[in-house]
């Protein structure tokens, strides 16, 4: 029996000695405690305590015959099926119990995530969890890492809209390419990822330098609304300005025009 099998038994609650003793019982039984200690390499001083625990958890049986006490395993399939049923019931019960206690949600908090790999892992997890819609703004260099998850979302029937500074290939999704003026490019590269899923969660990623990245994640309805509103209106702003033409300069105050720099330049290509 491989060490991997013993590790799996440990993961479902066995101690190392219990795992070794149970595997040894499956190999040879019925058997005395003394014989089992030798076969399993469990110390003799511990073997009866280990057998008592195996018996109490329903993995072993005690056989008393002709004045001697021997032990046999409960068949692996029977024991594991029973273990599975019991823990399914326990987990279901815990869900009910803990949901009652979960009256204060932590979704209104803003959580910080450090490191490029961790940020990307969170983004992929969010995309995989999305059920209805995904709005994503990102740099072209970031796109390949998230493309498989986005394709899976499209296959599930989620609406996927991606905003970037260049055209991206995403069959079944909608890609909005918005050129960025040179003076705004540095700021855009710093804000390299904005992701909103199902109108419920938002992740905003920031590049600090070539080696460092961080992001903020929250389920706060206000933050989610602001981020989604920002992404969705970006789609239409250049078109609106293009229709207005020079009249846009009359409507937007001079000190605010730099806020619309990207849109003013993009309207030419709309």
Structure, explained:
By secondary structure, the chain is α+β, with helices and mostly antiparallel strands. Helices cover 52% and strands 20% of the residues. It has two domains: 3-76, Arc Repressor Mutant, subunit A, CATH 1.10.10.10; 110-269, Endonuclease Chain A (Endonuclease, Chain A, 2-Layer Sandwich). It contains eleven helices and nine strands. The strands form two sheets. A seven-stranded mixed β-sheet has the order 3-9-8-7-4-5-6, sandwiched between helices. Helix 2 (16-27) packs across helix 4, helix 3 crosses helix 4 (44-56) and helix 6 (116-129) runs parallel beside helix 7. It is rod-shaped and about 105 Å long.
The main pleated sheet reads as: 7 strands, mixed
Question: And the CATH topology of the largest domain?
Answer: Endonuclease, Chain A
Question: Could you say how many structural domains there are in total?
Answer: 2
Low-pLDDT stretches: 266-270
How far the N terminus sits from the C terminus, by CA atoms, comes to 66 Å
- H/E series, N to C? HHHHEEHEHEHEEHEEEHHH
For the residues shown, what is the average pLDDT? 84
Strand sequence of the main sheet, in spatial order? 3-9-8-7-4-5-6
Number of strands: 9
Structural class, please?
alpha+beta
Spell out the blueprint of helices and strands:
Elements: H1 3-11, H2 16-27, H3 33-40, H4 44-56, E1 60-65, E2 68-73, H5 76-101, E3 110-114, H6 116-129, E4 133-138, H7 143-156, E5 159-164, E6 174-177, H8 182-190, E7 191-197, E8 201-207, E9 213-218, H9 221-244, H10 247-251, H11 261-266
Parallel strand pairs: 4-5, 5-6
Antiparallel strand pairs: 1-2, 3-9, 4-7, 7-8, 8-9
